[in-house]
Amino acid sequence: MTRVFNFSAGPAVLPEEVLQQARAELPDWRGSGMSVMEMSHRGKEFMAIAAKAEADVRALLDIPANYKVLFLQGGATAQFAMVPLNLRRGKKSADYINTGEWSKKAIAEAGKFGAVNVAASAAAGNFTTVPPQKEWRLDPDAAYVHYTPNETIGGVEFPWVPDTGAASLVADMSSTLLSRPLDVARFGLIYAGAQKNIGPAGLTLVIVRDDLIGGAAAGTPSMFDYKIHADNGSMYNTPPTYAWYVAGLVFEWLKQKGGLAAMAEINERKARRLYACIDSSGGFYRNPVDPECRSWMNVPFTLRDPALDDEFLKGAKAAGLVQLKGHRSVGGMRASIYNAMPEEGIAALIEHMREFQRKRG
Ligand SMILES: *Cc1c(COP(=O)(O)O)cnc(C)c1O
């Protein structure tokens, strides 16, 4: 078996130990005679798998008891609608912070359900930094404040958690959840599509404070109502059972690795090494993001001469480094370096970058 270093933004690399365990258990989960894929979601085997996964993610993030953890479908994109449908509660407006591509999508979707106040935007600086909180124009009567802690495409990450007082803070953490410790109590609601830093595609994690459940707008489809999912333990309908199981294996892996404080230390080191390689290239490689707001998870960079992009990518592929092509909207390169990207992958990428610069710089 040959594994590459996969820098995809999502679906993304999973820990090899997790894949090996899933493979070993694939046809017969722990003597049940069944694959997890074949199990009833209401049977005792899957109920145990589901409960263990929830307990482990609660332990990892130290989630307070007054929050529900929901295992849903529809991706972060469904949450762009579910958040306003459940949290607006007749309020005239909702505050959104615009820091890039994913913020814009969340804002556009929220606009279908009522007025949106873009309380701050990083557009003037071409989305290379985050607007300082003193510049935010929050509406005191807004239903909630929504932001994107890590912009997966722009590679811009908030190095701080906003303070929104009594207003509930809502965060799209699709590409950063579980990358470092988090004070969940600061948030009203956190959501994340699993396929970046949690597990396989098809699963969406929602962490929501109890008082924000139960206020869905009239006419909200059942599948878009947090209360329906919370009351049914995320089993109102058939959940994405296999993705839930693999996410559970990832949670176990994270616990074995020492939890999120240990992951943060590794992630910080991985990111620092890669940015140092870019910054010390004399402009051959370039990352435009404000150093304070550089993402630990998604590292976009350009080559001084874009005509060399294809050759760079070809050489990378030959060295076992794949999915480095930047997002179609920005071009260049992007290295996504989630929890499951080993430090050896960073070392191999840096080696390729230095070698390529020696040849073509
Ligand atoms: C990938 C991503 C999304 C979209 O997720 P889907 O699961 O494809 O709906 C939304 N927000 C952020 C920050 C993302 O990284």
From TrEMBL:
Subcellular location: Cytoplasm
MF GO annotations: O-phospho-L-serine:2-oxoglutarate aminotransferase activity; pyridoxal phosphate binding
Family annotation (InterPro entries): Aminotrans_V_dom (IPR000192), Aminotrans_V_PyrdxlP_BS (IPR020578), Pser_aminoTfrase (IPR022278), PyrdxlP-dep_Trfase (IPR015424), PyrdxlP-dep_Trfase_major (IPR015421), PyrdxlP-dep_Trfase_small (IPR015422)
Listed cofactors: pyridoxal 5'-phosphate
Keyword Membrane: no
Residues recorded as bearing N6-(pyridoxal phosphate)lysine in the entry: K196
Cofactor stoichiometry and binding remark: Binds 1 pyridoxal phosphate per subunit.
Entry's Gene Ontology BP terms: L-serine biosynthetic process; pyridoxine biosynthetic process
Involved pathway(s): Amino-acid biosynthesis; L-serine biosynthesis; L-serine from 3-phospho-D-glycerate: step 2/3; Cofactor biosynthesis; pyridoxine 5'-phosphate biosynthesis; pyridoxine 5'-phosphate from D-erythrose 4-phosphate: step 3/5
SUPFAM superfamilies in alphabetical order: PLP-dependent transferases
Keyword Endoplasmic reticulum: no
Gene3D superfamilies: Aspartate Aminotransferase, domain 1, Type I PLP-dependent aspartate aminotransferase-like (Major domain)
Role, per record: Catalyzes the reversible conversion of 3-phosphohydroxypyruvate to phosphoserine and of 3-hydroxy-2-oxo-4-phosphonooxybutanoate to phosphohydroxythreonine.
Family affiliation: Belongs to the class-V pyridoxal-phosphate-dependent aminotransferase family. SerC subfamily.
Oligomeric form and interacting partners: Homodimer.
Name the UniProt record assigns to this protein: Phosphoserine aminotransferase
